[in-house]
Specification:
Elements (H helix, E strand, L loop, with lengths): L10 E5 L6 H9 L2 E13 H5 L8 E4 L4 H6 L8 H8 L3 E7 L8 E8 L2 E9 L8 H15 L4 E7 L3 H9 L3 E11 L3
Parallel strand pairs: 6-7
Antiparallel strand pairs: 1-8, 2-7, 2-8, 3-4, 4-5, 5-6
Amino acid sequence: WYAERDLPPYVQTATGAAGTQELLCAELERHGWRREVTAQVRIAALAPVGDGAADVAAVRLTRAPDAAWLARYQRFSTPGPHVLRVLESGPSVWFATVAGDGGAPDAIGRCVVDGRWAGFMAVEVAPERRRRGLATTVMTALARRALDEGASAAWLQVEEENEGARALYDGMGFALHHSYHHYRPSPA
């Protein structure tokens, strides 16, 4: 499939929970595949996330990302229509923005509410504004909105090497559920 599209092969595996793929990971590594990224999937009760003391008055919640939100979003330099379709898809999608001085916002976040679950994504803070509680403020505002919609549980994904974010989520009560890994063949 990948060769037909002139793309390098790519495998995503999960580990750390019942029915996951530890043996597949071992085989990939034995055959010279390299692990590029490991991400943790974490879960928590939603109410404690929304109960934070953060002042959420500075957070603007919208149903679609605007140009400012996209300017802070780090996954794509210029998101095209296909990226916007993915970002805006889901049963109930919310975008959080904390305005900055001038161009890009100081912080952003995204939450998708689906029944009892609220999934948090794209929680990003401008490097020069980190360690000031902005990620907590964004998470709190989004959690409160998700609680208003009837959600009671939360999940998120965080890259394993992002120690600052993992510490933040630990403090909010998120616990590791499982991890997933991205593999590519080693260069020939």
